[in-house]
Amino acid sequence: MEARKNRVKRSALTAATMLAALGAGSAAAAPVPWGGHLYEYIPATNITWGGADSAATGLGAGWNLASINSAAENAFVISLITTTPTDRMHVWIGGTDSAAESTWTWTNGDLFIYTNWFGGEPNNSGDEDFLAYDFRGGTWAWNDVPNDVHGVYPSLVTVGGYIVENPVPVPAAVWLLASALLGVVGVARRRKT
Question: Model-level pTM?
Fold first, then answer.
């Protein structure tokens, strides 16, 4: 009986240690969970949209430039931008109309149902087929721009990086681990009585 109690205590300790490590790791990790997805702002000075898209998919299965599907998601993604913006700084997200002008799509296949364009945008001024957040007058909104927006407008625009997204349900994994830990602790308590 004593050996069984020790196994239960070790199991509870192992689960607690795993949960603590997972919690510590997720707090220190760069990707941030929201809405069942992971997001990360990746600083990359003056990267092109194509370069950002390649870097995003190069992160592994499921990673793409972010798609924005609601005002809440838009506000959350903007909150991830840690680089102090200068006027006309751009940050890439995964929208493009390069396949058919004025038909915007997300690179991850999501439907293009929400928009947050600056007034007068998209305007396709100079063959602008790629979507970026643009910081103007103290606010972030969307702008259609060329693939190498900094190269086209070097004295006007800088690119601060890009936002990536992966539909990995991290909160569910944490919930399952926490449930298992509570179950082990509950078994240990029942056996004490």
Answer: 0.74
